[in-house]
Every structure is written in structure tokens, then in C-alpha cells.
Design goal:
The chain is built from 8 helices and no strands. The mean pLDDT is 89. The protein is an all-alpha fold and 156 residues long. α6 crosses α8. The relative contact order is 0.15.
């Protein structure tokens, strides 16, 4: 899934404006340049083939880390971890799980609310380390259903 689509979904979910997005990026240790945040949302209403270049993996990684700090606060006991690039759908799912303090049952309920059913074993495979025997790559469809269900949960 495109990085800018994920950020746009989170923006809608939390009803954030450009300044709040910039502050989340700053919490994650990224200094956005003037107009960079507006560029992410410029292609919001365009078709997929007209969207152009996606935002960088570095920006997305900082945004997800900043989102965790925005939702949960910064821990003084733990130093910030280095960012992980490239940002895969599995990483997005993991970071959203941490940011919104979701447990396994919450994850299942959110996916079902979004219109997708998944077993506990399939769910746990999405959170395994890459290279593990039971690792499963998170597809765009699963992430879209998860974002849809999480949006319904947060906004209602």
C-alpha cells in the first residue's frame, strides 16, 4: 500500500490537520520541509495512475514512530529505536498496534469490523520476524480492511 495513502487514512481517522501531521513527524525525529506535508495530501483525490511519486520510506518511518509518541507519550526509560526502512505493510500494522494499544482480540475485532475475517494463526504470522518459518507478508487488502475497521472504531 502506498505510504501517502496510509498517512491520509490516519489523518482522516484522527481528524488531523497539516500542522498536527508536521508535529507528529517532529515527534518522530523528522524535520519536514515547507510544503512537504501538503504534498502528501495533494494527490488525495486523484486516481492511482495519476498520483505520481509516493512519500519516502524515511518520512513514513518517522511518521509511524511519531504517531506512537503522539498517542502514548515518550518513555524516559527507553531510548528511541532506529527507524526501519523500507516500511512494509507488516511494519505499519505493528506500529499501529503499538500506537493504539491493541491486543490480539482488538486486532481481530477491528479486521472483522472492516469486513475481513482472519484466524488467530494467520494474525500472529503477520507479527513474526521476517525470515521466521511462520512469517506471512501483510497484503494491501488486509491493511486496507484494518485501517477501515480502526477508523470506524476511533471515529465512532
Amino acid at each position: 500500500m502506498r505510504n501517502d495513502d496510509v498517512i491520509q487514512s490516519i489523518r482522516y481517522m484522527l481528524d488531523l490537520n497539516d500542522n498536527e501531521i508536521a508535529n507528529i513527524l517532529k515527534l518522530g525525529g523528522y524535520k519536514p520541509e515547507r510544503g512537504e506535508v501538503a504534498y502528501i495530501f495533494k494527490s488525495q483525490n486523484l486516481a492511482d495512475d495519476e498520483k505520481g511519486e509516493d512519500c519516502s520510506h524515511v518520512l513514513m518511518a518517522h511518521f509511524l514512530d511519531g504517531l506512537i509518541y503522539y498517542k502514548r507519550g515518550r518513555s524516559k526509560d527507553h531510548p528511541p529505536r532506529p527507524i526501519q526502512t523500507p516500511v512494509t505493510n507488516n511494519i505499519v500494522l505493528k506500529k499501529l498496534r503499538v500506537a493504539f494499544k491493541l491486543r490480539e482480540n482488538d486486532m481481530h475485532n477491528i479486521l472483522e469490523r472492516g469486513g475481513f475475517s482472519i484466524s488467530k494463526h494467520e494474525m500472529s504470522a503477520l507479527f513474526r520476524r521476517e525470515g521466521h518459518d511462520n512469517y506471512r507478508e501483510c497484503g494491501d487488502q488486509i491493511l486496507r480492511y484494518f485501517l477501515k475497521g480502526l477508523t470506524e472504531r476511533v471515529r465512532n
